Amino acid sequence: MSKAISTFGALKLAQDQIADLDQQLLKRKLRTTSSACNPNILVSGRELKAFCSNDYLGLANHPEIAKALTEGVEKYGVGSGASHLISGHNIAHEQLEKKLASLQTPYIPQAQALFFSTGYLANITAITSLARLAPQGNTSIYSAKLNHASLIDGIRLASAQTNAAVTLFDHTELQTFIESIKNDQRPQKIIVTDGVFSMDGDLAPIKKLLEIAEQYDALLLVDDAHGFGVLGKQGHGILQQENIYSDRIIYVGTLGKAAGVSGAFICAHNPFVEWMIQKGRPYIYSTATPPAIANALLKSMEIIDSDEGKQRRAHLHRLIDIWQKEMHFSTWEKISSCTPIQPLILGSNASALLAAKLLDDAGYWIPAIRPPTVPIGSSRLRVTFSASHSEDELRALIQTLQSIERHILEKKL
């Protein structure tokens, strides 16, 4: 017996909104992979050369890390069973947090670390709990305009919960921001910024922001998702690269990008982390990440700190140099970056989608990035490099991209 499908209010709204996104060329689509994260990846049965992952050091399929994950399952099982504050805090979590804190101790005094299942949860925990340090309405949050969605959502939630005042600033022009914070009479101020901006690949002016934080008695929260493992002599991130030391810094690092596994961490001066354990709702009420993941990450941290990690970073930076020297376009805008993130600005949604389609036809996977991820009119290809890419593979991509640009210009598409 067939059942009639009704079209009620919410269902129709969903259908109409999705149709509207499709018409604006903003509808996103899932693509399914069936192989390990590598430069060559199986996508719906086709092998494509992937220049789109955040596996910057090529550790996502590292045999020693895979072995450590398997050993972790054999030791600790599959699940953690509860939140950290109930019974889910395993010795593997403890060892990982101590290791992560030790990496940041040269830059943050009395550093303590907290491990999370995602960077999204880490950012929301840090911002909402810190906003609760001061009484209602006594916190100001200053956020870089191009911050990641997880920071933006954490700030929105903190503002709703504590009536914190929120001000956006341009990280490339700080004078207006300085005037705002200089006249701010609220007793608590928090400056929030990405370390590496994920869509442009440029670095936040951390030293200058820290100077401002010190002058106007503010905390500085740095989300170094795309810097940890890549920046700095030993890959410890942007604080190491900029040679910074301060108890005002709340450092957030991601472990599913350069570290090649999964999760994230907050590292800060001990009292701040202790406060987050007491008041960070996402931490308190989330089941702990499986300890086997923490066991794998301990091996990943070992590799990042080793000669192998140094060699992988050196190769990655050679790829960046080749791109900067050899990648030239007639009309597409190339944004220079010292990181593995190398965006190409095409402008319209249609242009970005067409270029991504032609790349796919040529055997490459580089998705089009469109609003709301980037501002309207700045749709782009976000090219990312991995230490697993070879120089020959990168040069072949350069030739392909230049050929696609010429094709689009000739056809006036």
Characteristic terms for this protein:
413 residues; seven-stranded mixed β-sheet; globular; Aspartate Aminotransferase, domain 2; alpha/beta; Aspartate Aminotransferase, domain 1
* Mean residue pLDDT: 95
- Shape category: globular
Report the helical percentage: 40-55%
| Beta-strand content bin | 15-25%
The H/E string reads HEEHHHEHEHEHEHEHEEHHHHEEHEEEH
| Main sheet attributes: strand count, strand direction, barrel closure | 7 strands, mixed
- Which strand order do you get reading across the main beta sheet? 3-9-8-7-6-4-5
Count of discrete domains: 2
Radius of gyration, in Å, reads 22 Å
Query: For this structure, what is the CATH homologous superfamily of the largest domain?
Result: Type I PLP-dependent aspartate aminotransferase-like (Major domain)
Structural class: alpha/beta
- DSSP strand tally: 14
Q: Given the structure, what is the number of helices?
A: 15
Examine the secondary-structure arrangement and name the CATH architecture of the largest domain: 3-Layer(aba) Sandwich
- How far the N terminus sits from the C terminus, by CA atoms, comes to 50 Å
CATH topology of the largest domain: Aspartate Aminotransferase, domain 2
Under CATH at level 1, the class of the largest domain stands as Alpha Beta
The residue ranges in which pLDDT falls below 50 over 5 or more consecutive positions are none
